Amino acid sequence: MKQKLLIGVDIGGTTIKMAFINMNGQIREQWYIPTDTSEKGKQISNDIANSIRDHSLQLNIPYDTFAGIGMGAPGFINMKTGFIYNAVNLGWENYPLKDDLELKSGLPVYIDNDANIAALGEMWKGSGNRSDDLICVTLGTGVGGGIISNGMILHGANGMAGEIGHMTAVPQGGAPCNCGKTGCVETIASATGIVRIATEGLSKYPESLLNQTYDINRSLTSKDVFECASKEDQWAVDVVQFVSLHLGLTIANLANALNPSKIVIGGGVSKAGERLLEPLQEVFNQFALPRVRDKAELVIASLGNDAGIIGAAWLVKENIS
Amino acid sequence: MKQKLLIGVDIGGTTIKMAFINMNGQIREQWYIPTDTSEKGKQISNDIANSIRDHSLQLNIPYDTFAGIGMGAPGFINMKTGFIYNAVNLGWENYPLKDDLELKSGLPVYIDNDANIAALGEMWKGSGNRSDDLICVTLGTGVGGGIISNGMILHGANGMAGEIGHMTAVPQGGAPCNCGKTGCVETIASATGIVRIATEGLSKYPESLLNQTYDINRSLTSKDVFECASKEDQWAVDVVQFVSLHLGLTIANLANALNPSKIVIGGGVSKAGERLLEPLQEVFNQFALPRVRDKAELVIASLGNDAGIIGAAWLVKENIS
């Protein structure tokens, strides 16, 4: 029998990442199309279906080679029915995405949220190394999370499982979070949070390298913070310690409850690599139970932006096998 | 076909609770035998097998009516193989419990730890009401936990999942915990923790009802604390608030990650009922995401000491069906 191909789709607010991926998780072809959010995003599923047909023709791949489409979308989703309750960035509201795209593509469609497919991608082909018990934390503009336990992604009672970013790190007097609460770990360990904390303290450290960087660029990035910390700038070191304390404690608490074998740290902030991992590991070791700590490996994600399309393809593979 | 019977066994350090339970989860017969911990607990499996035979004869139940034995044990267990790494209270060390009991009873045996079978029991026949996504927290001498997600009990990478009692509530300067760490939620929300906190503050509140109770009995119980709080004794109210804050925050954080539909509070401390549930719900509402909060029902366990044998019987039912 001819080897089937999986289609991975990762929808973002400005671009849609797409790929043809083989059953071993190798990317055969990948490309982007723009996200057309006009008219409440009604063109998006057409654009995806047409783009798949175009690329299959260009590459001379018979359409019946495709086993199905796996898809990651932002927002509130019913993963079983592929129904989107609400995806603000895309304009979708009460939209039967799965049904619509199946109609337009003629292929079976499987949907999960973007944080979960990133976790599945890292599990399948990335740092997660096929772990059946994995926590993935994505440190970007916000903090996303995906939890795999007993080999399955957890969805919870209404699809909210994995909202690690909204675990409370500072119960009293924490910074306001986009979710409406205060003191969420997202307000501290996201790129946005790190920059906020670093910037707020600059006036107290006028001589710091971080303040000099700010004076040159009139702004800071989380990368600046880690770079200044590696040069032993005290204020930058303090910020990294503070971030590591709260993120490490949150992860250790979750690990005590879930006992993962892999904890994968991804997203833009994770590019700091060992500069983040080392202080994080120290805090984790302090707060995790010995048997939990000994089994859990803390690692940096390895797939970068490809995690989503690979995890989306995995959804298809799991559902057809 | 004749209705099969399930055998539920819940092993404690002093007694073993046993029951014949039908496929609907109704207890047909239950009894206790003492736990013989002499000679590293080598008689325990014999005692269980013999007791099953005795009771089946007495009750005139043909032995082939039994579908199998489900069993909850304390300690570190490999749930798949039923191998006990270590159960200090019973004397077991590197002991193939499942294999041994299957040999002696001639019945299939399924094993999980005691906190997990309590969660399964509450899920099947108690306050959990068949929820596929449930967190069970048992507030007794310690704080135990069991997590059901996607309809399955979570074990994690080496059987440690559900150790909710060792999530850290007080990161710095917390009380020492039996696990070797400090500030675990067990040091605050267990019966032991509540009594410790209440007793430590008595000298500051010489006029309090709680201090008067202490003077009469020369000791306190967690029940005293809740009773004095319900009479609006300020120090007792403060203790209940403090306990609720830390337990409620821990549960809300876990709920943000797992999105349960039921959170079941069991164990001796839960007998306080609404006196505990009301302040706990208030804290939970503050720290849980709105969509998580709206879906999660916080309830008191309803099966008491029967949760274990019923959950153990459920293990058999799930494995044979």
Walk me through what this model shows.
Two copies of one chain form a homodimer. Chain A has 321 residues and is an alpha/beta fold. Helix content of chain A is 40%, strand content 22%. The first copy, chain A, is built from eleven helices and 13 strands. In chain A, a hairpin with a 2-residue loop joins strand 10 (143-149) and strand 11 (152-153). The longest helix of chain A has 25 residues, at 234-258. The first copy, chain A, is globular, with a radius of gyration of 21 Å. The interface between A and B is large, with 47 and 47 residues.
Short description:
The structure is a homodimer of 321-residue chains. The first copy, chain A, is an alpha/beta fold. Chain A is 40% helix and 22% strand.
